[in-house]
Amino acid sequence: MNTPFRSVAVALVVILMPALAPRAFGQSCAPAPHVPIATETTPAQLNPLIAQMRDFPTELDPRIFCDGRLKPAVRDRTMDLVSGLFARLKKSLPTSIASVAPDGTVSEVQVTWGIGAVELLGSEAGFEYDAKSDLGIHVFLSANGTICTDVTEDATGREIIDCDACRAACIADPVAKIFNKLVEFEQEPSDLSDPGSGITFYGMVVEVTFHGARGPSYQVYPSRGHWSVSEDTWVNQPVAQKDLTDPAQMLTDAMMWINRYNDLACEYIASPVGFDCDRFGDLDDELGDYRNDGIVAAGGNTRCTSNITYRLLRRLPSVNIPDTVDALEVRCSNIGTSLRTCLGDLDCNNEVNAIDLGALLAAWGPGNGPADLNGDGEVNGDDLSLLQSNWGTCR
After folding, report:
1. I need a surface site. Which of 108, 229, 260, 390 has the fewest CB within 10 A?
2. For residue 392, how many other CB atoms are within 10 A of its CB?
């Protein structure tokens, strides 16, 4: 076999190897730039981290509370931030909605949107925080002075708003969800290793979330801290909640989520072009449902297995899984929209295939034509390698 065709055979084997080598569930791979892999995959690695997550504080977070009350500077800055964001969100909300009477008559109802409540609840309003907690501010919109609370959950944990009772909320809630994504990308750290690149209070990342209605996850629960930023008072004074975490179940769940993330990330690393980016969003949604459903099932107790496991997944030394999944969905989508450099597409059909390979072999030797992909004046193995690295459809 002559040298060019021996090189071709080797190149084709390299091209086909990823497709011919299936990977077992839970098997890791080498990380790629901007795509980290979780390395904490064994009980010996995870059990000490689980123990740390279950070592709860005995006082309110001194970064934001003083003498049992939210620091005035934190409250003032929060309200300024929320007011500015609401002014932007309000521009996307309709000023009137259609109302259907029992007899079928349709009329137009004017809607005045407002900030119904600004609240802090969960770990930062109680004794479940740690050094890496973020400040989660929840804003509940009001329509004509009323916050919708006619909300239930289906079997999957998805919130269902009673649109007959809360027609305005049914319109506002999906708009708010889209707006929340925009705010997240704008104001949370652009570099997960550099919290200072986002909005922070005393080193804590600030996360503002708008809601068109108040669902079951945001009701007042016994023992759980619930501070009204807008009213500057406790809605519910926190006490030390009962520890409902099951360390063995935390280990099982954490390993399952880590393996699922690693499998997805490795598939993406192996073939980022044409990857189904929605799979990252689906995993993100499943993680959120796992956390929220567990809290609701525990009667609002945030010291439950699902919530503390979720927090563990955000604090793994190797990768913050929930935030990284979110970032990878955007990165994946951007790559899919972009046009990448496609050296080797010699017939300009937006694909590097056997036809281009044949054209390169036909031009083998000295020369600086289109097949000389690296411009060194010769078509040789270096050009063949460049063609191989771009094999497939150009996206």
Report:
1. 108
2. 13
